[in-house]
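Sequence design from tokenized structure. All designs in this work follow the same two-part layout: the structure record, then the generated sequence. An example of the structure record is given first.
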């Protein structure tokens, strides 16, 4: 029986993790959870799984829970978070917190020597240069659980590492606007942007999918996860979201990973050791499958160029890119800017680079805050 610590338990990734655990109760125990302020969802999880520890990031929510639950179970604050992540009884840490907010936990987890299932791509985008050396030093195992990177991992299984790889294709659904021009995007609504054709997840990743920024973040993440130059990765639009990645080898053969778009598939693979875990899933009907591929839209190539610059230059560029995007997405969802202005916020903020500091968790946090201030200024100028 493996004890699981699920960070970001009330989000959409958390839902998928809990579903896999429920189908494999003989193998996994939910030892602890963390969440911010989704009280109703957290109570459902606590009632069903009875975790030993509950870390609550939001202080008001924490104080509310003090009146309803055993105080010995409840945790809050940086010290409590560190103690929970480093707890001797935790076997597997799942980082499912959305956005930059997941950085601190991912950084702490990297120093534990434990198995880490990583869904929080932003922590790698901003701090991959320090998280992976830290994980290597402490012999922590980082396993990706987003569909594309887990697909690459499975395609490379049994191969000679990356030595024989010629190219890796990371697919993008393209979201609801893949055939729109930039001009077409000026009048799209929030509801349209949140209506992904293939899956239902949180608002942040759904908007990132619609702008294709999510795929650019995944390009940066792939560089660190597989320790490969960005030139080996190609971003290709695949509207059906059936093929998640394709690895082409030096002998001309290619291996692809296919499944219906379902986060439980990569999560189940990452949780397994030698044998795959049984889960309920929808079978692919190969007789009716229609698969198509498109080039990354030319009028949005600048966003991919930024991601490739982040890969090449490193430093704080990932932090600047991520912070600008998070502010842009939040501004769109709060109706401060139109959809196509998300790109403008990123481009104009990214031009104001901050490069003169040593790369540490503390300096990354500083640059993140400084970048958010600059991005808000850009939003104001565009409003």
């Amino acid at each position: 029986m493996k004890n699981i610590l699920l960070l970001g338990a009330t989000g959409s990734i958390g839902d998928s993790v809990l579903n896999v655990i429920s189908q494999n109760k003989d193998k996994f125990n939910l030892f602890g959870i963390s969440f911010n302020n989704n009280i109703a969802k957290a109570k459902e999880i606590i009632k069903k799984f009875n975790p030993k520890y509950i870390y609550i990031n939001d202080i008001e929510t924490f104080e509310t829970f003090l009146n309803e639950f055993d105080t010995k179970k409840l945790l809050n604050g940086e010290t409590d978070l560190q103690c929970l992540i480093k707890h001797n009884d935790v076997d597997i840490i799942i980082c499912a917190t959305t956005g930059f907010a997941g950085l601190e936990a991912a950084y702490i987890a990297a120093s534990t020597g434990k198995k880490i299932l990583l869904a929080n791509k932003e922590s790698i985008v901003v701090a991959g240069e320090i998280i992976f050396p830290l994980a290597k030093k402490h012999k922590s195992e980082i396993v990706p659980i987003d569909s594309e990177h887990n697909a690459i991992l499975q395609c490379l299984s049994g191969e000679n590492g990356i030595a024989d790889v010629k190219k890796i294709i990371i697919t993008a659904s393209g979201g609801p606007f893949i055939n729109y021009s930039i001009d077409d995007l000026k009048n799209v609504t929030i509801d349209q942007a949140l209506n992904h054709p293939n899956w239902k997840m949180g608002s942040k990743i759904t908007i990132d999918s619609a702008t294709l920024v999510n795929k650019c973040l995944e390009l940066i993440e792939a560089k660190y996860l597989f320790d490969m130059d960005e030139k080996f990765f190609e971003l290709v639009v695949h509207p059906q979201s059936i093929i998640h990645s394709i690895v082409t080898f030096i002998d001309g053969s290619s291996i692809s990973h296919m499944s219906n778009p379902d986060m439980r598939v990569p999560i189940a693979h990452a949780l397994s050791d030698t044998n795959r875990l049984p889960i309920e899933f929808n079978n692919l009907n190969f007789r009716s499958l229609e698969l198509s591929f498109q080039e990354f839209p030319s009028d949005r190539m600048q966003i991919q160029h930024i991601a490739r610059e982040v890969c090449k230059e490193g430093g704080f560029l990932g932090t600047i890119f991520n912070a600008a995007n998070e502010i842009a997405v939040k501004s769109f969802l709060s109706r401060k800017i139109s959809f196509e202005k998300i790109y403008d916020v990123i481009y104009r903020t990214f031009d104001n680079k901050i490069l003169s500091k040593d790369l540490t968790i503390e300096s990354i946090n500083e640059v993140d805050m400084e970048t958010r201030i600059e991005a808000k200024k850009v939003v104001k100028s565009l409003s």
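The two ends are 54 Å apart (CA to CA). We note this feature because it recurs in several other targets discussed in the main text.
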